[in-house]
Each structure stands twice: as C-alpha cells, then as structure tokens.
C-alpha cells in the first residue's frame, strides 16, 4: 500500500469512529446482572472463570454491562444454581450441568461422561461438532441458554486410604464420587456418596468414607486430603475433560442488545480457555508438592479400567433406551467420540507415549 493511501484510509477510520463512537455509547443501556456460582471463592481457578467473564464483559461494553459474581451459598446453595437462573432469582449462573442429571440425564453431556472427551475433544464437540446446538433444546425447556464455561482437564481418580489392586478391592468401598461416575462405580461394588467439597476431609478423616475424588493436584492440595489418605489414584476416568457452563435466563438473554450478547459470548469463550490453561500451569507444581509430602501415586489397575468402561457403556445404552433427548445427543456424541479417539490415537498419542516421562 502506498503511504498516501494508507494515511487516507487511516484518516477515514479515525473520522468514522469519532462520529460513530458516542452515538453507539449513548444508545446502549446499563445492564446489571447477578451471577450465582456453584463454587467457593477458595477454588480460585474454577470460581475464577466467573470473574474472567465479568471483567471482560465490562471492558468490552465500556462498563455498561456489569455482571457481579457471587460464590456458592451467597445467594443460593451450589447445587441450586440452575433453579435460581430458571426462576430469575439471578440472570446467570456458573455451574456443572451434570449436577442436574436428576432433572434430565442429558445434562451429563455438557460436563462429562465416564470415558468421554478430553478437554480438547470437549471443545471440538462444543464449538465445531454440533455440541452446543445439540443441548440447546434441553436448556430451552428450562427457559435457559448455555455457553461453555471452563474445563479442569483430565481429573485425578482420587484419594484412597488403602491400595486398590483389583476390582475385588472396590467391593463395599465407600467413596465420595457423585454423578454418573458414582453410578458406574456402584456397578463395580463401590458404595458411592455425594458430599460437598467442605465435607469430604472430615469424612475421610473419620473413615465415614474410604476414598474420595475431587478435582486434581492444585485443588486437592488445598483441601488437604493427603493428610488422611495416602494413595492418590489416576486417571479420573469418569472425568477425562469435564466442562463447566454459564447458563443464562433465556428471557434476560433475549433482552440484551446484540453487542452485549457478542461481548458475553466472547468473554465466555475466553473464560472457557483460561480455566484449563490455569489448571495446566498450576497442577504440575502442586503434584510435586504432594509427592514431597509422601503421597503415593498409583494408576488404577487395568481390570478396574476395563470393568468400568464396560459398565459405563452399558449404563449409557440403558439411559438411551429411557430418554429420547438423551438418545439423540448420545448417538451423535458416540460417533464424534469414535472419530476423535481414532485421530487422537495417531499424532497426539504417538508423540506423548514417546516424549512424556512415565511415573
Ligand atoms: Ca471430580
């Protein structure tokens, strides 16, 4: 481009924005939303996604669209976030959709299914595999619309007071493991329990539970589980890449100016990416700290993994026979998963098996 042309174009640009800017600014209303999170502030990585969303939305709208996050329990308990958004108590929530499988089992797909997607595959499914569209009708039935809102990456298999050498060692074991993972575990003889984050440590300490899963090294270190259970198992096959969601009251969403909707979507996508990047940056150091404190790292035996995978897919098929919406999403999910696994088994796995140190 000639210099004179460039200056001319730049000049037009400045003139246009000077004329357009104030008009745009004055036309846009001030909007204030409240966000209910399912998580405590102390879990800064997972709770932090709501802060990333709020800050970016505010910046992108010149401070006109304000979202104020509240931690679990401040407005509603952590497991009632969907209900609060549905009822309009708050306009937006940040939660894990699989907390609500009791309302409809298809809510599992936006978080994780046992032996499902890794974080990257979950994003491939959401953004370019039809995943977001696949569950929109489910949310619409509840007067909601959803956006991907973070991912922890592959989770750990949790804390065990005794070593697990085969499926037999799981029989009668009381374990804190919610959701579909718990259902699959129950088919291997485990007695699953659902406990909120703050109740896990005392239960493990007292022996009310023999094992407990939470997230991964960074969060688990903070909760101190290593002090009361020495064996730290991997992988968390029930959550290979669990995602979080922002859920918005559909009527409130429809009231937003198009520019605010765009700002929200962009900010949600940033929060989605940022969470897994933060976990990936922080987990290695936390795992080293845990190992220095005497934690014994163990991989689940192959017979446990195989039995769990078999039980998981039996459960998925049973659910598909019961719930038409689940079946519709599951059929597409399963096909996408097979394609993803075939591809990731080539370049990614080939590289990782060679280059990553084994523990
Ligand atoms: Ca977990």
CATH architecture verdict of the largest domain: 3-Layer(aba) Sandwich
The amount of beta strand, in percent, is 5-15%
- Residues in helices, as a percent range: 40-55%
**How many structural domains are formed by the residues?**
2
What name goes with the CATH superfamily of the largest domain?
A: Bacterial extracellular solute-binding protein, family 7
CATH class of the largest domain: Alpha Beta
Determine Rg (CA atoms, Å): 23 Å
SS-derived structural category: alpha/beta
The neighbouring-strand order within the major sheet is 7-6-8-5-9-11
Number of strands: 11
Low-pLDDT runs: 6-19
What's the number of helices? 13
Question: What spatial form do the alpha-carbon principal axes imply?
Answer: globular
Describe the structure concisely.
52% of the residues lie in helices and 14% in strands. It has 13 helices and eleven strands. Residues 155, 213-215, 239 line the site of calcium ion.
Q: How would you characterize this protein structure?
A:
- This protein is α/β, with parallel strands linked by helices.
- The chain folds into two domains: 3-153 and 241-280, Bacterial extracellular solute-binding protein, family 7 (D-Maltodextrin-Binding Protein, domain 2), CATH 3.40.190.170; 158-239 and 285-322, Periplasmic binding protein-like II (D-Maltodextrin-Binding Protein, domain 2), CATH 3.40.190.10.
- It contains 13 helices and eleven strands.
- The protein has helices at residues 3-27, 44-60, 81-87, 119-128, 131-141, 179-187, 197-206, 217-223, 250-255, 258-292, 302-322, 324-344, 347-355; strands at 31-37, 65-70, 92-95, 144-151, 158-160, 174-176, 191-193, 211-212, 231-234, 243-249, 296-299.
- Strands 7-6-8-5-9-11 form a six-stranded mixed β-sheet.
- Helix 6 crosses helix 11 and helix 11 runs antiparallel to helix 12 (324-344).
- Bound molecules: calcium ion.
């Amino acid at each position: 481009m000639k210099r004179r042309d460039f200056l001319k174009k730049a000049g037009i640009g400045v003139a246009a924005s000077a004329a357009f800017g104030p008009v745009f600014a004055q036309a846009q209303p001030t909007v204030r939303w409240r966000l209910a999170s399912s998580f405590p502030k102390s879990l800064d990585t997972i709770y932090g996604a709501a802060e990333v969303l709020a800050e970016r939305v505010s910046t992108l709208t010149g401070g006109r669209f304000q979202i104020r996050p509240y931690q679990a329990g401040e407005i509603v308990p952590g497991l009632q976030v969907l209900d609060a958004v549905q009822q309009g108590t708050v306009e937006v929530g940040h939660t894990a959709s699989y907390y609500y499988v009791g309302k409809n089992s298809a809510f599992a797909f936006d978080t994780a299914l046992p032996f499902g997607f890794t974080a990257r595959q979950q994003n491939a499914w959401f953004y370019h595999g039809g995943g977001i569209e696949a569950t929109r009708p489910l949310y619409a039935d509840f007067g909601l619309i959803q956006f991907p809102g973070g991912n922890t990456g592959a989770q750990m298999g949790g804390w065990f007071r005794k070593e697990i050498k085969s499926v037999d060692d799981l029989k009668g074991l009381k374990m804190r493991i919610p959701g579909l993972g718990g259902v699959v575990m129950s088919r291997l003889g485990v007695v699953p329990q659902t406990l909120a984050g703050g109740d896990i440590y005392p239960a493990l300490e007292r022996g009310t539970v023999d094992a407990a899963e939470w997230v991964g090294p960074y969060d688990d270190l903070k909760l101190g589980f290593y002090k009361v259970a020495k064996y730290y198992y991997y992988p968390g096959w029930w959550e290979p890449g669990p995602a979080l969601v922002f859920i918005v009251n559909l009527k409130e969403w429809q009231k937003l100016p198009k520019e605010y909707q765009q700002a929200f979507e962009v900010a949600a996508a940033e929060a989605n990416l940022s969470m897994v990047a933060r976990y990936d940056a922080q987990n290695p150091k936390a795992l080293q700290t845990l190992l220095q404190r005497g934690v014994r790292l163990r991989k689940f035996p192959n017979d446990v993994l195989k039995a769990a995978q078999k039980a998981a897919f039996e459960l998925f098929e049973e659910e598909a026979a019961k719930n038409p919406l689940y079946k519709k999403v599951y059929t597409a999910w399963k096909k996408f998963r097979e394609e993803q696994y075939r591809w990731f088994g080539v370049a990614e796995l080939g590289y990782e098996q060679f280059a990553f140190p084994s523990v």
